[in-house]
Amino acid sequence: MGLTRRHFLRGTAVAGAACAVATVTVTEVREEKTLPPKAVGLLFDSTLCVGCKACVTACREANNTYPELNTEDKLWDVPLDLSARTLTVIKAYSEGSAENKDQENDGFAFIKKSCLHCVDPSCVSVCPVSAMTKDPVTGVVSYDPNNCIGCRYCVEACPFGVPRFEYDKTIARLRKCEMCKQRQVDGKIPACAEVCPNGATLFGSETRLRAEAERRLMLTVGERAFFPRKTVDSTDTHEKPSSRYNTKTYGLTEVGGTQVLYLAGVSFEKLGLPTLPEKSFVSTSEKIQHTLYKGMIAPAVLFSGLLFAVRRHANHNEKEKE
Amino acid sequence: MWDGVEQMAEQQNRETLTGAERALGVSRRTFLQFCAGVAATLGLPAGAEAAIARSIVARRRPAVIWLHLSECTGCTESMLISEHPAIDKLILDLVSLDYHETLFASAGYQAEAARKASMAANKGKYLLVVEGAVSVKDGGIYCKIGGRTAIEMVNECAKDAAAVIALGSCASWGGMPSAQPNPTGCVGVSEVWKGPVVNIPGCPPNPYNFLSTVVHYITYDRLPDLDNQGRPKFAYSCLIHENCERRPHFDAGRFAEEFGDAGHRAGWCLYRLGCKGPETYANCPAVLFGDAGGGCWPVGTGHPCIGCTEKGVGFAKPIHALAELKFVTPPAFYPRIVEEQGKGVSVASAAVLAGGAGIAVGASVAMAKNLGKGSKPEQKQEGKPSKKPEDTAENSPDCTE
Amino acid sequence: MSPKPVGGPYITGTTILAALMVAIMGTLVLARFCFGLGTVTNLNDGYSWGLWLAYDVVAGTAIGCGGYAIALVVYVLNKGHYHPLVRPAILASMFGYAIGGTSVLIDISRWWNFWHILWPTYFNLNSVMIEVALCISIYTTVLILEFAPAVVEKVAGWTRQRGGNLHALTTTVEKVLDKTIFVLVALGMTLPTMHQSSLGTMLIPFGYFINPLWQTPILPALYLLTALSIGYAIVMFEATLVSDRFARPSEARILGLLSRYMAAVGALFLLVRCIDILYRGKVHYIFTSHGLGFAFLGENLLILIAIILLLSEHRRLAPRYQFIAAMCIMSGCVLYRIDSYLVAYHRAGWHYFPSAPEILITFGMIAVEVLGYILIVRHFPVLYSAKHVNAQALATE
Fold it and tell me: What's the pTM?
């Protein structure tokens, strides 16, 4: 047998066509995601947070979630982490004697964990059935259980470990913070921002929040400053000497940016906010998919080539059999 | 150590109580209640009240010199209006109050003479109680008693005292007169007198804090344990935040936002209104004020704590400024940044996996050995599978287990 | 020359054991649907994809790439002498994918919405998973249809005796299948190329959760190569096993020829992987990954052993070494897939090890394939006589 000229030419033709297609499509870069026009978000300032957990309680009330009784006597609501029953949680960092607030050594600090409503959300990109969607106007990332097939790709893929699943239920669904969108519809603000006594959690338009974060980073340590409560533009403020902040706001560039921003005095890595590249991971996978399958051209070329080859060789085999 | 008191001293107790009855003119029950109350406040073990009772009856009353400097007399007043049965009487009969400007009938030269005489007669044995801050600016001219500056008074009286007690925030660290701009340069006694000083801050302090300190001294001949600011630990070792009855509201995030709002009327936490409980050391929520029952303390009545015992908080921070969190206090139910979650390997799962893997590997090895035994001849008859019991090689088309 | 049913008893020690495993699996699956995933598995929010997805679906569908691998050789490279290996390979593939698909259905938690995967209004075309799910669904159908001729042949034999309309119908079906099978065959090579590579792309959104020894932009290429390697390996494994257990003559001659493709693809995989690790500068992770380095080395070593074994022609023709090499390739590549999906995936603070019921369900899935394969091979015309197979091989030499 061996490779006949005809086979060789055919093979080259198919390969050449595939390469041509690939070259055409690889230049189509996946478009960069930007903030939606009326993006809203939250600013969490760890130096203001005193760990009162009012936000956790208010979140439960606003979203009808149940307490997690994790102590032996089953009397205290102590979620260990985000879960299908807990959409936001306050975690404590402590080191050494834990005597100094917002200090990394021999200090303690609080961090509020919830959905970061990314600008380029991994969960939205990987969901096969569009159960995770990002609102094109406000940017809030929501979950629609009616579409969801429960594959949990979003749970695996989220860089921050936000979506959580109900493993203990027969009819199960996902849960994550949706920025109290049901309250926003009524003109109210997310429950966590509403109840925070220090304004550690602030709600507002993304541009205003970023400006506020900048303002705080410019304060000198100990400088008495005013901090708003509930919303970033509120007149209900309180005065406090400024703490020492990390040099940057977390969430401006991480995996394409997030709409929930963080300020802290302890390094973000120690607070459980990972160091992430500017390019989201899903931008790579999407680029590969788009390159290979744009317009289904490459598969179609491959299929036609194979069709041709099989037809020819099947005929040969038929003849040989007889 | 206290066992002997209960066993052999029944007789002794009866004598003590009779003695007290006679000497102090109060009923036995009242007297015992007083001793038990003092023991409880001091945090002493059971049986201590008997020791206290004995020493009160047996001991000679120590002399007390009581100075009033830059103060409002609130500390004295709070003690005098206490409703404990005849407490003023008890105090006055407990100690020999040889100089007290408020309570003295005499004044002027007579009073000063009495003081000097008492100090000379009780040299090295009298208690000096200082109420009020010491004004140090411009040589102390802003507070003079009988022509002497407060600084001179303190130095003179503390020199030969057995113990110096600074009563109230003013004497402890400067208190209200020291609030910015502190025009008279008011400071605490320990800034002027460098010897040991017991500070009992508060504005006013709970009278039992002072009283218990004195009784402790009389009973055991030494002062109670003090912290690094000279404050008795039994009263000032805990933050108000740790014992506050509204703490569950703080933990649940229920805050009063304005005086008179629904939350305020429901008794919610006053943190948002500026309560300084999280950074103030005192025992107010435990001992309360005024001997009038529960709720008789600032937070209990609905006003945020102003941190009156704490230097740098009371009369320094605005009343409605939010308190800083001193440290994480119980209930310390915060999850850590990384919590260990999820089930790892168990006996059952390891056994099942190992079993399956063992079978697969074993069968593969057996199979490989078998294959080496020469090729099988062509068979006309097909389909005679062997029926070996360990015939389980087909169970594992892969061998990753 | 055509394939014939092997015949023989359906009830043997193996089939009884397999049936028992299937029964246990059935009970546990019922429990899973009645009481929820958490009661039967150890899945949690740190490891939401566990044994079922990593092995049953990702590794299992690769094991179902036998048909794909053989088809490439027979229909693209035009090596007709491998043709007798096609039908049994298709059978194994059909089972591999059916089991993979069933495992997905068991694993996903809102299974009543599963049809959304096939309904265009729900599609999110940015997701890798929609492509994988669609491809696998279509490919499973294709495999079933590709295997249909074997069933139809058997039915035709039965209807021939009865004659009449039924026989005419069967003959028509046979003719239609004959004419259109080439479309199915072409599809049966296009689809695996797409979704087996995309199974690799599916790991890319996991970013830093996956150890750098496995996380790379060329995952699709590596996954495609492992799919082909395993494809050849499973054909060799299954052929050797069947010859031995059914006491049929060995097909070592043709397998010896096939083993070269297996070794070549395996070598290509190792080469591409090495170049990739060196290019990305991640070699040091072998030593700093807390034991994962051993997994990495183990995977590659197993494949290397197989390649080395197959370098000598003498060993290529020996059933024992064919079997060992096939096992090594399969273990190495399956280990690679399980490692990249599960073992090398790490979320701080989270632990996962499959629970006993979870493992038993996986074993049950394997038992389904074993049982089904045995019963079908005995009853339907799948296997050619070894004489014919070896004659084909000899003809090429």
Answer: 0.80
